[in-house]
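Residues pack. One example:


***
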Amino acid sequence: MYTTAFLDLPPLLSAGGTIRLPGSKSISNRVLLLAGLSEGTTTVHDLLASDDTRVMLESLRTLGCGIEQAGDTVRITGLGGKLSVLNADLFLGNAGTAMRPLTAALALLSATQGGIFTLSGVPRMHERPIGDLVNALRPLGCTIECTGNEGYPPLRLAGGQLKLNEPIKVRGDVSSQFLTALLLALPLVSQDQALTIEVVGELISKPYIEITLNLLARFGIQVERQGWERFVIPQGSHYQSPGEIHVEADASSASYFIALGALAGIDQTVRIEGVGAASIQGDIRFVEAAQAMGAQVTSGPNWLEIRRGQWPLKSIEMDCNHIPDAAMTLAVMALYAEGTTRLTNIASWRVKETDRIAAMAKELGKLGAIVVEGPDFIEVTPPPAAQWQHASIHTYDDHRMAMCFSLAAFNPLAPTAAPGKPVSVRIEDPRCVGKTFPDYFESLFQVAQTDPDLIPVITIDGPTASGKGTLASALATRLGYQFLDSGSLYRLTGLLATERGLDLDDASAIEPLARQIGSAISLRFEHEHIWVDGRDVSTDLRREDMGQAASRISVHPGVRAALLDVQKAFRGLPGLVADGRDMGTVVFPDAALKVFLTATVAERAERRHKQLISKGFSANLDEICADLEARDLRDRSRAVSPLVPAHDARKLDNSALSIDESVDTVLGMWVEGWPHVIARS
C-alpha cells in the first residue's frame, strides 16, 4: 500500500492483463456484523483488508466477539444477540458501513439489555449526517445523545424502554445505509412480534438494500419486501451462523478497471477476476453504463473482460441511483467522450466521505474540463482541444476520488489531448485508498503500460560514502517509486566473482558473469535487502572488501556495458530513484531530476568508520580516509564514465546535513519543479 504524501503518475498509454480484486467493502462489513450478532461461529473467506473492516473487527472484539484471523480468512464467534460487554467506547474512523449499523444494533440492545456505548470517528465522520437514523430509533424508546452537533456523530447510547407497536419510519432519500442499519438491527428485538419498516421518500441506492436482504437470508432472516416502501421482519427472527461464507470481490472497485479497459484496452483485454455478471452487488450494473459509453465487455460467473470498443467514448445522460458509488468513475470517463455527459439522481454523493459532487466538479475543472454541478447532478464536458492542464488532485480523504482520478493519467489517449504534450497528474494522499482497496495503485501499475521514456527518473550520483544510497532509498520510499542501488550490482558482481575464485582484474572472466545478472542469476530488491537466487546477500555486499571489489571491476568497459541493460530495466511504474556514480551522465541522461551528492573526505570517512564499528568490524579512520581518496582519484580518472556531475545536475553538499534533511532538500527540489521537471522525462 502506498503511504506517500502524494503520488505522481506518469502519462499512461495502454492496459492489459489480469487483476484480482479485493473483497467488497459493503459485503465485508455487513457479513462481519451479522457474524458478530449471530449464534455460533462463522468462517468468513476472502474478507477485504481495509480501514473500514479493521475498525469493524476491532469493535466486535471490544464488544466480546471471538475473533481469529489468518490472512483474508476470519473466524468470528458471535454474541447470539446477547451483550457480554455493557460499556464500550468505539472509534469507527470514517466507516459509514460500521457507524450506521452499529448505532442501530447497540441502541436496540442497550434499550433491552442495558449498557452505555459511545461511537465516534474522524472529523469527517462527525460531519456525515446520521440524524435520520437517530430519528427512527428514538421513537422506539432508544436513548441516543448526539454529543457534538445534533444529527451527527459522536453518539452516546444509554438504555431506554422499547415500544415496538408502530411501524418504524425512516427516510430513504439521503442514504440507504440508514435502512440497512435498521434491517440488520431489528431482528434482534423481533421475538414477540413482526416488525415493519416504512420508507419515507424515494429510496436511493436500492441495490445496496438488495445486498443487505441477500445477506440477511444467508444468516436466517427472511425479510418480506413490499415494493421499496415497506419491509417486514418476521416474528421470532434470530441470527444463525451459516458456518462459512465467501465475500465477493468489490464491484465498485471493479469500475476503475472496467473503465481502464474501455479507455486503454487497445491491443489486449483487461481481465477482472473475483466478480462477474451474477454478482449480488448493484454496482455490477456499471458494466451497462460502460457499454453505453462504448466499452466491449464479456463476462462469466466470476470474471469480466473489457477492451476498448467505440472511440472516442460516447457521452451519456444517465440516472445513477442504481450505481451511486461506481457512477463517480463515469464522471472521469467523460473526459474521453465526445460531448457532455450528465449524471443525475446522485444526491447521496453530497453526504459520502466528502461532498463528492463539489469535489468532482473542482478536481475535473483543474484538468481543464467544463463542469456544471447541481443539487443531485453533474455535467462533464472534456477539456477543449489541446487545453488539458497539469493537475494536482486533492482527494479529500476519499478513496474513490483517488482511484477515479488515476484514470486521468491516460490523458495522452484523449481525443482532445495535444499530440506529444501529455499532462502530469499528481494524486494527493494516495494512502486514502486503504479504506477499500489498499493495493489499488500496485494493481493499476500491474496492468497499465507506457513508453519507458515517459517514466520519470531521479538520479542520485556522488562519490563513495557520500550517503547517496541511503538518500536514494529513503527518497524512493517517500515518493512511492522503484529504487535502484546501482552500486550493489557492481558489488554483487564482485561478490560472485570472489566466491567463484575469479581474478577481479581479468575482464574476460568477469564480463560473462555480469551478463547473467538479472537473467540466469535472479535479482530482487526488497526494501533494504537484496536477494540473489533466493539468498539474502545484503550483509555481504556491505563489506568493505566488496566496495573495493566493485571499484576494481567497474573500470572494465565490458562489465559496465553488461550491467547497463540491467540498470535500465529498473525503470518501471510509477517512477525510479537511481543511485550510483554515472546514473545522470550515462544510464539515465534524460532523468527528470539529477542530484550530485558530495561531502568532504573527512566527513565521509567518519561516516564509514562509524558504520563499520557499529557492525562489529575493526576499522582505522586514517586508512579509510586514504582509501576514499584513492577511490575518488580512480573514479574521476577512469577512461569510461568518469565520476563527474551531469551538466544539469543539482549539487548538494550534505557534510552538515542529516539523512532526513538531505531527503527533505531533494524532495523540495522535486516538488518545486513539478510539473515541469517531470515533463522532461
Observations:
- The domain at 453-680 is CATH 3.40.50.300 (Rossmann fold).
- The CA atoms of residues 258 and 287 lie 7 Å apart.
- Residues 96-113 form the longest helix (18 residues).
